[in-house]
Design a protein that fits this description.
Layout lengths: L19 E4 L4 H16 L4 E5 L5 H7 L3 E4 L10 H18 L6 E4 L6 H9 L4 E5 L6 H6 L5 E4 L13 E3 L6 H4 L10 E6 L6 H17 L3 E6 L5 H9 L4 E5 L5 H7 L2 E4 L3 H10 L3 E3 L9 H11 L3 E3 L7 H13 L3 H11 L5 H14 L2
Parallel strand pairs: 1-2, 1-4, 2-3, 4-5, 5-6, 6-7, 8-9, 8-11, 9-10, 11-12, 12-13
Helix pairs in contact: 1-14, 3-4, 7-12, 10-13
Amino acid sequence: MSERSELPTPDPRPPAPGPFLMAGGGTGGHVIPALAVARELRCRGHEVFFVGTDRGLEAKLVPAEGFELRKIQIGGLNRVGLQQKLATLFRLPLTTLGCLTFRPAAVFSMGGYVAGPPVMAALLKRTPVVVMEPNAVPGFTNRIIGRFVSRALISFQESARWFPAGRTEVTGLPVRDEFFRIQPKPRGDVVNILITGGSQGSRTLNQAARQSWPLFRQAGFPARILHQTGAAGFEALRDEFKSCGLEGEVVPFITDMPAAFRDADLVICRAGAGAVSELEAAGKPSILVPFPFAADDHQTHNAQAMERGGAARLVRDAEMNGEKLFATVRELAADPDALPRMGAAARQFAHPGAARRAAEILEEVAARI
């Protein structure tokens, strides 16, 4: 029998582009959505790496997910002191030059100061850049580079004006599937109120909630309150709540937030992009209290967009106290259709599959090189 060499069977699929660079760090709002997109890319067989700093949350979360983190030295420019601003401006060109050594097929940016150098380096090399802008008004970095990006993935149609016509798509922000699986909750005799200022808590919401307890009690208002306070001040609030005569619980941190959303008739919280996206996915009515010192006041713009859409009530931080909290809850509860109507409006903003769509777009722009 004659021997013959076996030629490899040609793979009909095009070679996978890569690697992909994920830019954006500092806070969970920048890192967590980027991780969701990175996981989707990895499932599709692509190599992915992150660029970040030692100080940001990416230093903890990215390695824990099994992704490489290439570290740079950079600071912020927006809402910082003169000394840090000068130091950042001095370091920015050198850090950008260092990022020129990266050779990604495309860059995915969540914005923030960490994204500046790798994104500028990519633009200099004409590498495709896809940004995800979850706020109604883009952050500083995305406003600067917006007109040069290949695609902009947005959550609010209002932010499209900051990017080139024809390059935006409303994808929303990646949100855990558990939030999308929450079903509309029939209105009962007791109003279940979830109050959360995020994992660190909110002093404004903590104080307003405490001030509202005797008002709920005196009015005989049928409410059950679950309040995530953050670690600071938790014990004092917990002890005072136990003696106020209301149903509910005060906790420092809620481990299963989708379950807390599922049981809530109304959510009172800040208006960061992550919180707003979870409200939309879960279809929950809300009272939004924007953090007044957020960069570019983006939380106020987010809350205004939700209020215009009929999904939320906006209460300014300076106006939020116990009387305002109680009065707003009582007003909404007095109309039996108000909370279901707001919840349905919130769900109209929701966009499932955001991470999957972002990965598809990154593949598309990389394939055009």
